[in-house]
Amino acid sequence: MAPRSSKVLRETDIKKRYSLPTGFLSSLPSFNGGRAVDFQAVDGSGRVWPFRCSIRKNGHPKPVISKGWRAFVDSKGLKVGDKVRFYKKKNEAGAKKHAYEIRAEKEIKIFGAGFGYAPII
């Protein structure tokens, strides 16, 4: 299952909101003419995280996750340089509702140099 969004976190992602690529919008439930949509993602421990993705009123949509995002960041102890990936999958019942998975990865540094990433459960 390929990630729909994979990103190395920046300061804004840690302190305020998570900016998504515009292409991620097609994997979300319909906005139904609105500017925000709620969805849930499950992490590696099975915890369900409620999120809200919103877009700008005019111009480029610039999707961001704000509601629920800081709770996730704080719970996982994420810092600048760590990585987050969102995955989309069909639920087991085959219904039209989508299920999302979120994975956080800590940056591994050895002697101050980035060495890779390790999953956070």
UniProtKB/TrEMBL annotation:
GO terms for cellular component: nucleus. It comes from Salix purpurea. This is TF-B3 domain-containing protein. The keyword Ribosomal protein does not apply. One of its GO terms (molecular function) is DNA binding. Keywords: DNA-binding, Nucleus, Transcription, Transcription regulation. It is found in: Nucleus. Residues 3-106 form the TF-B3 domain.
